[in-house]
Amino acid sequence: MEEERTIEYKLPRTIAEQGWIGVTIPRVYGGMGMGHLAKTIIIEELSRVSAAMGAMVQASQLGVAKVIHFGSAQQKRHWLPRFASGESLPTIAVTDPVSGGHVLGMAGTARRDDNGDYILNGRKWFVGNSHIGDVHGVVLRTGEGSRGLSAFLVESDRPGFHLGDAGTYGGLHGFSFGELLFEDCRVPAANLLGEEGQGLDVAYSSSVLYGRPNLTAVALGIHQAVVQDTVRFCKNRVLYGKPMTDMPTINLKLGEMQSRLMTAQLTAYHAAHQLDTGQPCDAELMNAKLVNTEYALESARDAMHILAGRGLQISHSIERYLRDTLHLFPQPAPPTSNAYDSARSPPAATADSGRHASTTNARPDNRPTRPRPTCPNEREA
Ligand SMILES: Cc1cc2nc3c(=O)[nH]c(=O)nc-3n(C[C@H](O)[C@H](O)[C@H](O)COP(=O)(O)OP(=O)(O)OC[C@H]3O[C@@H](n4cnc5c(N)ncnc54)[C@H](O)[C@@H]3O)c2cc1C
Question: How far is the CA of 103 from the centre of ligand 1 (A)?
Answer without folding.
Answer: 9
